[in-house]
């Protein structure tokens, strides 16, 4: 009583100063307790009593008195340790960003006291344990990012019941189990929901289709089953839909082209979808990436895909899609209108008939072309060199015949060239020596003949060369090949008709792991330092 009367008798200005000092000391103490549990490698050298905590690295304070910490941003500082429960005393905190560090242990339940917290980012650490249910008390939260940690257990229903202001939820790449909580459908402001790379089971809650502000929805690489809820197709604001690598089934609606006018990425790969690819999909003119890989789609590819002028990535691999000389290849001609196309992946389908020559009219922005494990025949178009942007070409395990065109030497950005398991014939073109960036060249199991051109000695970045099992390649092996110090993985020239002595220069391949020359008419000895 006497002490209280004593304080009341103090001048108001002094009382205010004492209050400010006590409150500020509380924030400073919480921050120092946080630092005591971590190793910072000098990143937090400014955190000392000689300066006010508002000037410390990563700390932002309010503009009013008493000064309170309103933001703590220490992302990417290589901090190591566990989080102190004292962080829960920073009750005016609005932003907490500790991403891209080495924090471990459980997320303290005390963070649930941060009622003013709006943005929480603890991504890219090693946090473990279960989802901290107390975070559902942070009723002002708009963004919650916990991706790339080691969290497990179920996603609590409270997340959708109490955090009504959430716009972003990213729990990607953890070990969460159980179903997707149906309560997430209560988050009417939600724009980005990323639950990918977990171990979630069950079906996608139909109620998520009522979240009309949703722009990005990702559940890639879980164990989800069932069909995509029809309600999801009502989310006209969606820009990204990634449900890849689950156990979903069903077909794509015929009118999908009118459902997603703003869609940029549509990824349905790695599921059990069947049926045909609807032609209306070509009406999604905003689409940048379309991934339908590893499903059971059949029939012909819509011939109107070229209407998607923004398309950069098209992956239709590992389906049952068809084409022949009479019908089915029209989409290649159409894709010439996609002036930004970078990747075209058609591997492991039932495409047959001759490879259309119009493929050389695709955009020069094309970087990767995959036509492997198909039934295409005919020859590689003579003007393949027009596609000067290519860095990967894989035309393998097909019925392609004819020669390797000289124009392939124009593909100066080429890194990988795979032409194996075909029926190619003729000479290895000397123009290959122009491919200065090439590091992998596979042309084994064909009918190539004649000598290896000495120009291949110019491939200073080559680390794999496999020309085995052509049988009719002959002559001596160019000494220039054995001077390629970049050859480090393997060199396989076996089962051909090479003759003459093994060059003394073979010992120059100091970095080579495997050299295979069996099945030729060579003389001499391979150095013991190289595995044969």
Automatic annotation (TrEMBL):
Native source organism of the sequence: Aegilops tauschii subsp. strangulata (Goatgrass)
Name used for this protein in its record: Leucine-rich repeat-containing N-terminal plant-type domain-containing protein
Signal peptide span: 1-25
Membrane topology classification: Single-pass membrane protein
Swiss-Prot/TrEMBL keywords: Glycoprotein, Leucine-rich repeat, Membrane, Repeat, Signal, Transmembrane, Transmembrane helix
Gene Ontology CC: one annotated term: membrane
Keyword S-adenosyl-L-methionine: no
Segments forming domain Leucine-rich repeat-containing N-terminal plant-type: 26-62
InterPro entries documented for this protein: Leu-rich_rpt, Leu-rich_rpt_typical-subtyp, LRR_dom_sf, LRR_N_plant-typ, PGIP
Subcellular localization, as worded in the UniProt entry: Cell envelope; Membrane
